[in-house]
Amino acid sequence: MSDHPVHTASNHPEEHTPRFRPSLITKLTLAISLILIGFMGILDYINLRNFRNVMIEYATTNADQVAEIIKQSTYDAMLKNDKDSLYRMVGRIAQSNSIERIRLIDRDGNVAFSNIKEERGSVINKTAEANVMDLISAIRPDPSQSRDLSRVYRTSSGQELLGFTKAIYNQPGCSTATCHFHRTDDVVLGVLDISVSLESLRKKSSEYRLQFIVLTCLLLLLIGVLITFLVRRLVNRPVQRLMKHIALVASGDLNARVSATSRDELGELSAAFNRMTGSLQRASEEINQWTISLEHKVEERSQEIQRMEAQLQRSEKLASLGKLVAGIAHEINNPLTGVLLYSSMVSQDKHLDPLLKPDMDRVIAETRRCAAIVKQLLEFSREAVPHRAAVSINSLLDGVIALLHHQPDFRAFTIHRFYDEKLPDVFVDPNQLQQVFVNLLLNAFHALPEGGAIVISTYLSRDGNFVCIEIEDNGCGIEEEHLGRIFDPFFTTRTDGTGLGLSISYGIVENNGGKIEVKSRVGVGSTFTVMLPVVRETQVKQA
Predict the structure, then answer these.
(1) What are 323-357's pLDDT values in tens digits?
(2) Which of the pair, 321 or 520, is modelled with greater confidence?
(3) What pLDDT shows up at residue 5?
(4) What is the pTM for the complete model shown?
(5) Residue 120: partners with Cβ closer than 8 Å, 6 or more residues away
(6) CA–CA separation, 131 and 137 (whole Å)
(7) I need a labelling partner for 22 at 20 to 30 A (CA). Which of 130, 257, 354, 361 fits?
(8) How far is CA 284 from its chain centroid?
């Protein structure tokens, strides 16, 4: 078997060779050319017909003039009945290039004379030349009431001729002369029939038609060039600009605009495209803003869910740990009380060796320290029910700061207060919250370097449901891996700390319906944010 791949024909339409697509200029040029050809054909037919009629009328007029000349020239010869002179004169006139035949026919249809000898003395064919006989029969006694007759006919050889027949009336001089035999009551003596060749007319018509066709072709060529130029300038270029604009918009460039160079429909179309692109741009910007806003909201919600999960886990951990701590604290508290009591009694005994006095004092101090830790453990596990009331958070903070300022160690640091004086009251237990703020400020003081400062800010949350208190220091900061554990019991980075202050503060804030968060950067400082619920009218009434 062959290992060469088998190539199959593709059925994708884009791979087929594109068919010929006529351009707009080609379509307009062809359409207008066809219309012009039709109009020119009609105009050619009308002009040729009018030209032929005019030329026939002109030939008829010339034949009438020739007939009148013959009539006037032969008047004397007819009075004298000089037939030889009459025939010679008519024969000379018949030698003209445009005259094919001149005949004198009496009223009975007999050819008295013809420049064609074979026709002399013959009788005209009433069927073939009925027009001549119609004229003879239609002649009226009054010459003003009769009419001359012209006709166009073809000979047996195909030559086209114009026949003109004019009546010869009996004049008074003819009927009274002694040389004539015509009676007085004979009105018409005969007719003069002249046949004029229309060959020159045919040639001029052909020349005229040829000139008209050439002129039409030149006109069509000129019009085609003008149409191509005008359509390319007035239609094709604006359309190409629109197509380019559409391609740019399709590629995502919504800043593209079409330059409207005219005030016609294409200019209005360009303006409409610009308005449409502007609307698309505004819609795209709104969608982008919505997308960014949605991403921020999703991120905020995700962070909030993570915080809530962390808080829930911490609360469960604290609850479990609180039960354990409560049992341990109760078991340790009683022995510690006995140790403290008996060590105090021994220390106060007069029989105690003075050398043992410092050791006993150290035992008493460490026992009291253990008792204080056990007390904090009991407070941590007890979760006392808060006694809530409407409290001004700014006043509560001022009281805490005033309390701490009485201690000499804190006078070396600076506290900056930025309060929102229009804050609503919060619905909390003021004693428990005082303990929280004391713990937070003590932790901030311990983290501050010499000459450090603390910034306390209060403001209302965006949704208006919480009053926010920020306590910011420029101390050493908290390492990132420790941020998730600072509210855990017994976690501390200080050598003299118990690790219960922030845990107790966390529990108090949650019991009062609030939240506590922390942000910190090593070497920059830490910011603790406490969010407490705004007091509601229904809460005040229930309290």
Answers:
(1) 666 666 666 777 777 777 878 887 787 777 788 88
(2) 520
(3) 44
(4) 0.39
(5) 111, 112, 113, 114
(6) 10
(7) 257
(8) 12
